[in-house]
């Protein structure tokens, strides 16, 4: 029996329009939840939104595949897209209410709505009831939601720069100012705790920078880099880590642009600048235009650009350096940092994203390939980078994603100087 209330689509445009409206509603709600005009844009959140679009495509495939006779995939996708704007509004209602019972009721209402629309729409195009297809589609939706929670996929394009409540804003502002005010002393204390350099030979110093606190993967990657480089080059007791990690604001100095400049200046004072080598490892999200994301809760932190990083290294007088940047678009940092005394290794080309920066991971793809797999037993930095690049290329090819194309610059003098003192 046909249902005149639900049309049969023969074009992709209705689907595109419905999904665009749904994404716009989500972005608007996210903007309001993050504080409206005080919210800060987080472009990397587009990847998490894409995850949910992928889920919608998968559920539509289940509905189409299980139907007997088989429903056209386009129609199945249209039926789900038809409910998407309402589902977005229900999800935002769940986010703002403070009642578990009401949350459950809204979620059930959304699933029932999707089930009814799917049942009527499939009957419209197949001429038969498709209860099994509807049931399995709803189970797929519930399973996808569970997986998204387990993987901590949080779709959002904005994050709060400050609290919505005036009282909370004041408290957060005072605490944030106090915390930021304490950072120079924390850095100074950590530098004072370094072992004195060993005379008679070049020493290696390490500075790590984990920029994006809402995801633990960057802090974990800097931790591994600290351990591997420390074991390989003897820098364990001459190391400093600046880390944004939502799990702990007190264990280590925070990663801020100003803090990194201060840290490099103080570490530079302890180095023999004529011979000692600095390993500087930065791990975070990256943006086109040579910029690393710096975020830690509601602290008002500015992003770190290539020009500022290069200026901080020059200001510290550090001559011999190996800079490793694990981030999307990180190849865009090379031009600002390159000189004959430097080695620059990056996880991606200037126009490419890198992979593996999900919150359920301890390392990015680059971190696994370079710090974990290649560097510990490598005969040289160039060999380690080439091995890591080959491993990443094979992995990305197997997964069918656009290659990240890690980039490297080896200054002639820098490569020779580091090579002469390779353990």
What's the structural blueprint in terms of helices and strands?
Layout: H1 13-33, E1 40-41, H2 46-66, H3 73-96, H4 100-126, H5 131-150, E2 158-159, H6 166-192, E3 204-210, H7 217-233, E4 239-243, H8 257-270, E5 277-283, E6 286-287, E7 291-292, E8 304-305, H9 306-316, E9 320-326, H10 334-337, E10 342-346, H11 365-374, H12 381-399, E11 407-410, H13 412-420
Parallel strand pairs: 3-4, 3-5, 5-9, 9-10
Antiparallel strand pairs: 1-2, 6-7, 7-8, 10-11
Helix pairs in contact: 1-3, 2-3, 2-5, 3-4, 4-5, 6-8, 8-9, 11-12
Tell me what the structure shows.
- By secondary structure, the protein is of the alpha/beta class.
- The chain has 2 domains: 13-159, no CATH class; 166-420, Rossmann fold (3-Layer(aba) Sandwich), CATH 3.40.50.1460.
- It contains 13 helices and 11 strands.
- It has a 6-stranded mixed beta sheet, with helices on both faces. A 3-stranded antiparallel beta sheet has the order 6-7-8.
- The protein starts with 12 loop residues before the first helix and ends with a helix.
- The relative contact order is 0.09.
- Residues 161-174 have low confidence and may be disordered.
Give the % helix: 40-55%
- Dominant shape: elongated
Largest beta-sheet details: 6 strands, mixed
Number of helices: 13
Radius of gyration: 26 Å
Q: Distance between the terminal alpha carbons, to the nearest Å? A: 78 Å
Q: Please state how the strands of the largest beta sheet are arranged side by side.
A: 4-3-5-9-10-11
The protein's oligomeric status is: single chain
